[in-house]
Amino acid sequence: MLALGYALLGALVGLLCGLSSSPIVNTVMAALFAFVGGSVTYLVEKHKANRQNAGSVLAVFSASAIAGVLLGIVLKENRLLSSLERIRQIRAIEASETNPGGQRQALPAYLKGTDMEKLTAINVRYANHQLDAAEAYKELWSVLETSQRAAGPEPH
Q1: Which stretch of DSSP H or E encloses residue 93?
Q2: Could you give the CA distance from residue 64 to residue 18 in angstroms, rounded to a whole number?
Q3: Global model pTM greater than 0.85
Q4: What backbone torsions phi and psi does residue 17 show, to the nearest 5 degrees?
Q5: What's CA 45's distance to the chain center, in Å?
Q6: In the prediction, which pLDDT does 23 show?
Q7: CB 104 within 8 A of CB 97
Q8: What is the mean pLDDT of residues 41-68?
Q9: For 146, what's the count of Cα atoms within 13 Å in the CB-facing half-sphere?
């Protein structure tokens, strides 16, 4: 029963890690791994005869965490938790974004609908020292705000 509890905790940790792109995940992950390490250490010290069980608990936790991370990544990248209507909208946008050869243009998921040529031009000017960091930031932010307004509000 103990191994099952750690397996579920490992799956939860992995799934949250795989689904999230927030920096807070690093802190939460560190806290959860400290909890797991501390609790396993306690079990080993309390029941010296059950050291093999502690190893099993850690193995089950690690394996389920890996499986959870992979599942989270697959869910996130394939948008399997999105509504069908939202997926249709995203696919329509992706289909309309083509390069001159007619092939689909690969844009980062968070920059869909953004004019990448404008962003690249700002980056080139910054690299050539024609803009300082503050000016480049303001121009980049302006382009992103404009593209966000043009895209309209996110459907719920």
Answers
A1: helix 84-96
A2: 12
A3: no
A4: -65, -45
A5: 37
A6: 74
A7: yes
A8: 80
A9: 11
What does the block give as tokens for 41? 């250490």
Q: Which of 9, 1, 69 is nearest to 36 (CA)?
A: 9
Phi first, then psi: give them for residue 50, nearest 5 degrees.
Answer: -100, 35
DSSP-based three-state secondary structure for 81: coil
Distance (Å, rounded) from C-alpha 105 to C-alpha 142?
23
23-44: string of b/e by CB count within 10 Å (b at 16+)?
A: eeeeeebeebeeebeebbeeee
Count of Cβ atoms closer than 10 Å to residue 61 Cβ: 25
The one-character DSSP state at 138 is H
94: confidence class by pLDDT, cuts 50, 70, 90 = low
Span 120-144, average pLDDT: 87
The first and second tokens of residue 59, run together, are: 């193995």
Task: Return the amino acid letter for 118.
Answer: K
* Residue 22 structure tokens: 């927030």
**How would residue 135 be classed by pLDDT, with cut points 50, 70 and 90?**
very high
Instruction: Kindly calculate the radius of gyration of the chain based on its CA atoms and give it in whole angstroms.
Output: 23
Whose tokens are 């989270």? That residue is 72
Whether 99 has a pLDDT exceeding 80, the answer reads no
To which residue do tokens 């690690």 refer? 62
Q: Phi/psi of residue 2, each to 5°? A: -65, -45
